[in-house]
Design goal:
It comes from Pseudidiomarina maritima. Helices cover 84% and strands 0% of the residues. With 233 residues, it is an all-alpha fold. It has one domain.
């Protein structure tokens, strides 16, 4: 009896519909774990890069020199490095144009950073919607398999005159396996989605704060340059 009620035997002897449900939930679980590890690596790298670049930025290095360093590694630059590169590049391009005012330079620099910012946040949020989908629908898919299995078990009971627990137990057990698989696929996906959403928001705030800080520095540099230009010789 124990061999007959083993999990492997129950899965192999389940109805075709329940087996398809289990196969679908297994695919959900595999895809979910792949996305969990992939997003973990992406967000970990983005956070580490942001902290490292902020340390370099506030170390007192000349911004023009820092711009050259980031330009040299353009293809391998991180999110915050790309923000700085886009903003400072636009600022440097317009700085020597007498027809462009200070406010216009700062606005152009901010717009350039906003484009990069939007692209970087989209990259960090990639596949998070799939984790949310897997976490939300897997329990219902498992429940469908459970309902189908229990329904078949009771239909089988209708064909006999005397029902026993031994007759209905395998059908109910295989049905409950579908529910367990649904939860196994959903729980990690939901936990990862909530955690990664928080991490994306945290990194996003770092980006936005850096953009404001860079604009403040550029504004001070512009004001100092204007003051020197207007000073009597």
């Amino acid at each position: 009896m124990q061999a007959e009620l083993s999990i492997t035997a129950l899965i192999l002897e389940a109805s075709v519909v329940v087996q398809l449900v289990m196969l679908l939930l297994l695919a959900f679980s595999v895809v979910g774990w792949m996305m969990i590890f992939q997003r973990r690596n992406v967000l970990k790298a983005a956070s580490a890069e942001a902290l490292a670049f902020e340390d370099r930025f506030w170390s007192g290095v000349d911004l023009a020199r820092l711009f050259q360093e980031v330009t040299a590694k353009a293809q391998n630059a991180g999110g915050m490095e790309k923000l700085f590169h886009a903003g400072f590049k636009e600022f440097a391009r317009l700085r020597n144009n007498p027809a462009v005012g200070q406010q216009q330079m700062l606005e152009a620099s901010y717009r350039a950073m906003r484009v990069v910012h939007s692209r970087e946040v989209d990259n960090m949020e990639q596949n998070l919607s799939w984790l949310a989908t897997i976490g939300s629908i897997s329990p219902y898919v498992g429940l469908f398999g459970t309902v189908w299995g229990i329904m078949n078990a009771f239909i089988g009971l209708g064909a006999v005159q005397q029902a026993t627990l031994a007759m209905v137990a395998p059908g109910i057990a295989e049905a409950l396996i579908a529910t367990a698989m649904g939860l196994f696929a959903a729980i990690p996906a939901v936990i990862a989605y909530n955690r990664y959403t928080y991490q994306v928001e945290k990194i996003d705030n770092q980006y936005l704060n850096f953009m404001d800080e860079l604009l403040a520095i550029l504004q001070r540099q512009t004001a100092q340059s204007a003051a020197k230009a207007g000073a009597p010789a």
